[in-house]
Specification:
Elements lengths: L1 H14 L1 H16 L6 H26 L7 H14 L1 H29 L5 H20 L4 E2 L3 H11 L8 H19 L1 H11 L1 H6 L4 H27 L1 E2 L7 H11 L11 H20 L4 H29 L6 H6 L5
Antiparallel strand pairs: 1-2
Helix pairs in contact: 2-13, 3-8, 3-11, 3-12, 3-13, 4-5, 4-6, 4-11, 5-6, 5-11, 7-11, 8-9, 12-13, 12-14, 13-14
Length: 339
């Protein structure tokens, strides 16, 4: 009885671990980190995470399907470059539309190669990442891009303007996208089918679910969300560097796993990934305010990720070991109820 209660408590803690970690980090930093708990700093944190939060939406859905998308970082940079580079020709509406369409096409190609050509998603998206890196250098000539027109500055001011405490238009866009996709995943049949596909493709196929279609849609969403994240940041900053999305891949992977999305698929959530990104950014910011260097923040993030990965491996091992077991069997044997 006591063991059952303990296991239930551990399961509850595992289910809500990212929320517990978020509250713990926020309370600690608010109490002890100098200049952490003020509107300016918290707004800065929200603006900083928005690009990665938007990119994490699609990436999380891909991981729920049991796949991996290594191309999101280069899609972020690629879309930012297109958004600024094509602005003189198409205007911002047209250039952003082209950038998002490019992200959609990259995601579609990734999905088709994974499902129809049966190539591992790691290999496919690694190749896509490399190709896009070359395309970015061809488009930019190896130089950063910027736009210095009155229209660009006006749009930048609008996207950075505070609508509510901590919320700017770009932050609001991220919040809306997270809310919409969380509802779709949790409350619709199509959303739940992503979990079934990731949990067991054979079962999903036997249930009449088009597994290939769902995986393709997941990659398309990943490409589109990464493109939206990169384009929106480029418009607010009016510039795009060649390494804009370089750190996003590991950041998003770490946060998605820490948020509870299983690498094997079938488990996870968009909201949890977003909360994990916010938690990591609060941790990084707090450490910097304490006077620690960037190397310490990377080391701490690595420790957290290592712990979560090891814990996931252990939990998976315990689950596999317990399959088919009947804890009550010994008691039944002792009472003569079996046999």
């Amino acid at each position: 009885m006591r063991r059952t209660g303990r296991n239930s408590l551990l399961a509850l803690g595992d289910k809500y671990r990212i929320y517990i970690l978020f509250v713990a980090v926020f309370v600690f930093m608010a109490l002890f980190a100098p200049r952490f708990f003020n509107v300016f700093n918290l707004t800065s944190i929200m603006k900083t995470i928005t690009m990665n939060v938007i990119a994490a939406i699609g990436f999380t859905i891909v991981m729920i399907c049991g796949q991996l998308d290594l191309s999101i970082g280069t899609v972020i940079t690629f879309s930012a470059v297109i958004s600024l580079g094509l602005e003189p020709v198409f205007g911002f509406v047209g250039s952003v539309s082209v950038a998002v369409a490019a992200g959609l096409i990259v995601g579609l190609l990734n999905g088709l190669l994974v499902t129809k050509a049966k190539i591992n998603s790691f290999i496919v998206t690694l190749g896509t990442m490399t190709i896009l890196q070359g395309a970015i250098y061809q488009l930019t000539g190896g130089n950063s891009m910027s736009v210095s027109t009155p229209a660009a500055f006006a749009l930048s001011d609008f996207l950075g303007h505070k609508l509510l405490p901590l919320v700017t238009p770009r932050v609001l866009l991220g919040l809306i996208l997270v809310a919409v996709m969380e509802v779709v995943l949790r409350r619709t049949r199509a959303g739940r089918n992503f979990y079934i596909v990731g949990g067991n493709r054979t079962t999903a196929w036997l249930a009449g679910i088009g597994t290939d279609s769902y995986i393709i849609v997941a990659f398309v969403l990943s490409g589109a969300m990464a493109a939206i994240g990169g384009a929106s940041l480029a418009l607010e900053s009016t510039s795009a560097t060649l390494n804009l999305g370089d750190n996003s891949l590991m950041y998003v992977i770490s946060a998605t796993i820490i948020g509870g999305t299983a690498m094997s698929g079938g488990k996870g959530g968009v909201l949890r990934s977003a909360i994990a990104i916010l938690t990591l950014e609060m941790l990084y910011t707090g450490l910097i305010l304490f006077g620690f260097g960037n190397e310490v923040t990377i080391f701490i993030a690595g420790l957290i990720l290592a712990y979560v990965v090891l814990y996931e491996a252990y939990a998976s091992y315990r689950h596999e070991k317990s399959l088919g077991q009947r804890p009550e069997l010994i008691k039944e044997l002792a009472e003569g109820k079996v046999g």
